Amino acid sequence: MSNEKQVDSGRRGMLVATCAAGGMVGLATTGALVSTFQPSMRAKAAGAPVEVDISGLKPGEMTTAEWRGKPVWILKRTPEMMASLAATQNEVADPDSLKPYTMPLPEYCEKQSRSRKEHNDLLIAIGICSHLGCSPSSKFAAGPQPSLPDNWAGGFLCPCHGSTFDLSGRVFKNKPAPENLDVPRFMFLSDTKVVIGKDEKGEA
């Protein structure tokens, strides 16, 4: 009898230890699953709207912000730059941005300037070519230049395969890039501050 009692108590001890270990594993697994479903701070920051101070931006200058890991250009166009958009209207493949790349042109943007009416001199565009994802270079000076036509009015040149875009980010005809540069949703908090990735309808 004493031997049976010893065996039973031994089994009981093993059973308790096994259940305890299993419970610990279960809790650890549950914790891992919970942490998996909770977005990290970095993930939140990557998609959050970005505020940019443009008080120091002069006509003809461009600054670059980062939103969702992408470069976002903010170009303050001069009157001459704005006038060039009419000249390129018939030379670009999609003048009214009817074929979006990864996002539609916000409805509050004018078709030619691709910007808000109250700040139509400011172009806000994502600096990623719609061909293979390269980042175009700014070529704001007008006139003949290497890899550009003699009647160049200013714009952007993609160094990878030669796609060219006007000063509204519209791709010229017969180029490798199939669509215009994306224009994200944005809004002005004041005349000197713009938020990218958010507008009156909420976050993008």
Write the layout of secondary structure elements.
Layout: H1 2-37, H2 41-47, E1 50-53, E2 62-67, E3 70-76, H3 79-88, E4 122-126, E5 137-139, E6 155-157, E7 164-165, E8 186-190, E9 193-196, E10 198-199, E11 202-203
Antiparallel strand pairs: 1-9, 2-3, 3-4, 5-6, 6-7, 8-9, 10-11
CATH top level of the largest domain? Answer: Mainly Beta
Shape: globular
**Helical region count?**
3
Q: Give the C-alpha Rg.
A: 28 Å
* Chain-averaged pLDDT: 84
Based on the coordinates given, report the CATH architecture of the largest domain: 3-layer Sandwich
Proportion in β-strands: 15-25%
Spatial strand arrangement across the major sheet? 1-9-8
**Structural class label:** alpha+beta
**CATH homology-level superfamily of the largest domain:** Rieske [2Fe-2S] iron-sulphur domain
- How many structural domains are formed by the residues? 2
CATH fold-type name of the largest domain: Rieske Iron-sulfur Protein
Q: Give unreliable regions as ranges.
A: 1-7, 14-40
Helix content: 25-40%
For the largest beta-sheet, the strand count, sense and barrel status come to: 3 strands, antiparallel
Determine the N-to-C terminus distance. Answer: 75 Å
Work out the oligomeric state of the chains in this entry. single chain
Order of helices and strands: HHEEEHEEEEEEEE
Number of strands: 11
Structure description:
- This protein has 204 residues and is of the alpha+beta class.
- The protein folds into two domains: 2-38; 47-203, 3-layer Sandwich (Rieske Iron-sulfur Protein), CATH 2.102.10.
- 26% of the residues lie in helices and 21% in strands.
- It has three helices and eleven strands, in the order ααβββαββββββββ.
- It has helices spanning 2-37, 41-47, 79-88, and strands at residues 50-53, 62-67, 70-76, 122-126, 137-139, 155-157, 164-165, 186-190, 193-196, 198-199, 202-203.
- The strands form four sheets. Strands 1-9-8 form a three-stranded antiparallel β-sheet, with no helix packed on it. Strands 2-3-4 form a three-stranded antiparallel β-sheet, with no helix packed on it. A three-stranded antiparallel β-sheet has the order 5-6-7, with no helix packed on it.
- β2 and β3 (70-76) form a beta hairpin.
- The longest helix is centred in the first third of the chain and has 36 residues, at 2-37.
- The N and C termini lie far apart (75 Å).
- The relative contact order is 0.16.
- The model is unreliable at 1-7 and 14-40 (pLDDT under 50).
